[in-house]
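Backbone description:
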Amino acid sequence: METNSGFDSRIMKIEDGHDSANLVQRVSEQLREMIMTGKLERESQLPNEPVLATMLNVSRSTVRSALTILEHGGFVLRRWGVGTFVAKDPPAYDNLNINIGVTQLIQSSGAEVGCAEVLVVERPASEHVASRLGLDPGTPLIILERVRLANDRRIAFTLDYIPKKYFGAHTTTEAILKEIDGYVKQNCSMYNYLRDRLSIEIHHGIAWIHPVSTENYLAEKLQVARGISILYLEQVDCNSEGEPVTLSDEYYVADAFTFTVYRAA
């Protein structure tokens, strides 16, 4: 078993001003996200409770409660007198309280990330998309459409809508489309693209989730039968000021992942 070296450089202190129940949730979610994205390696040992409490700027009881949640969820193992370890095979599912991208979700399952049928185009915003993003209908958008792969299996079809204004007035549409196409084929993650190329940090997302039936286009993209039920997730991603930045439509094959919601009393 290895200890997580450099753990303190990867963890974020929890801000003051939250009730105890919310603190427990925030701590458990941060650690869960680090496990799911591989920042905490499988079977590695976490710092002990006093050290972890200091790193996170919370009490030991908060850390203890958060670790209990993670233990019950199968993310960590607690060995009496030895310490707490990341599970060998943590659950490969997404906690909907954590704003995690499709790329990170696939990585958390231990699968190889890939994409197919990538299409990047400029189109005017429809009334619905414009209302979600707080734009005028017809505002120019850059739209990224692609099939998401996990070990070469088609598990999701996604569309990302990004207002063209973020790319700068002097950048040609052709250059934007070419850059995004090359980036996502190499790196997959649009969250990383927004951060690395546009200096846009996503603070949180607001999502609407419901089942839909596959029509011809979706069935073809996901290579599933027409008329079966799949999970549709529509999400607006916002910056730290709460302003909508991007919109995404995500269609998941029903058995690709299990999504969970953690509900506090």
Summary: Residues 20-36 form the longest helix (17 residues). The CA atoms of residues 94 and 167 lie 31 Å apart. The mean pLDDT is 86. The domain at 94-260 is CATH 3.40.1410.10 (Chorismate lyase).
